[in-house]
Every structure is written in structure tokens, then in C-alpha cells.
């Protein structure tokens, strides 16, 4: 029979012989709730646009605990386990020489002894390109491994503008110039910030 006749028969609730009508049941309740998108209004759109512009002008915060500690700035003096000075100087010399060989720019070494809980020395250097920074980090890791320092961790070595090398008592920060100026680790951890203004108590008894 034609489709028109079939629809007319079903509409009269009298399907023709040999035809079975299957009624669609609503889907069973699975206990989940569907979220519907909120309606867009002119006020909401304006608020959202303002929020995006604010976030776009804000620098990204570092994600790892080590990087967060690095930008936290000097705090109260902390006690660390004593480190063998000769060994520390040996590792530090390897790091700085490796950076110089790889054309690292503006290499700075900061003494964090008694001031930071995560390291005794911080080395900061600048690279001009992702590839150069990655090579600098790889060479430091290899050279420290050759002298027996096996536990060297690298964060952000895949095209990041900030690569951190955790060599235990020494941390190395390799930046692109813009990122180095943005985070300003030398300003945060420089010795000048530990000098209290004249007449200000230091909190000690």
C-alpha cells in the first residue's frame, strides 16, 4: 500500500493487517542531568568580553611547585642541611661554563643559603630561541651526569620560554628575554631585598 494510505490508517489507530506499529518510549531516566547552555544576553556578553580582556593582559602563573617557589620571593630565613662547599662549587662551575659555551647571555648566580628552602644556589641565564634553551638544558644535564650527579630534573623543555633545571642544591632558570624581565627572579631573590629599611625592626628577639 502507498505511504499516504499507511499514514492515514495509523492516524485512525487502525493499522492495516500485517502491519505492527511500535510506539517510541521516552528514554529511561539514568540519573544524569543535562546541562543547557545559558541564553546569551547583551549584558552577559559585555561582562564576558571584559573578563577576557583582563585575563589576556595578565601574565600566566607558573604551574609547577618548584616554579611557584622560585617566584615567591625571599621570605623568612630557613635552615637547610649543610652542603659540601667543594662539591657545590664544582657543580656550579660546570653549569656556568656549559651556559657560556652555549652562548647563554647575562648569566647570574644568586646565593640562597639560609634564605630558600629549595636550593642553595640559583643560576639565571637568557637564551634567544627555544632550540638554544633546550640545548643548554640538555648539555647541563649530560655534563652533571658525567661527574656523578644523576638526579637532574628538567621542566618546560618543550618549546617553553622558561626552562627550569633542578639539580638538587642548585636550580637553573633559562629564560627568553621577555619572560626573564616579566618574572624578575634577580629582583625577587637579590640580596638587596634582604636589607631592611633604617629603623625597621627585623622581628627577631
UniProtKB/TrEMBL annotation:
It is found in: Cytoplasm. Residues 21-52 are annotated as: Disordered. Keywords: Cytoplasm, Repressor, Translation regulation. Its main location: cytoplasm. Interacts with ribosomal protein uL14 (rplN). Belongs to the Iojap/RsfS family. This is Ribosomal silencing factor RsfS. It comes from Gluconacetobacter azotocaptans. The gene is rsfS.
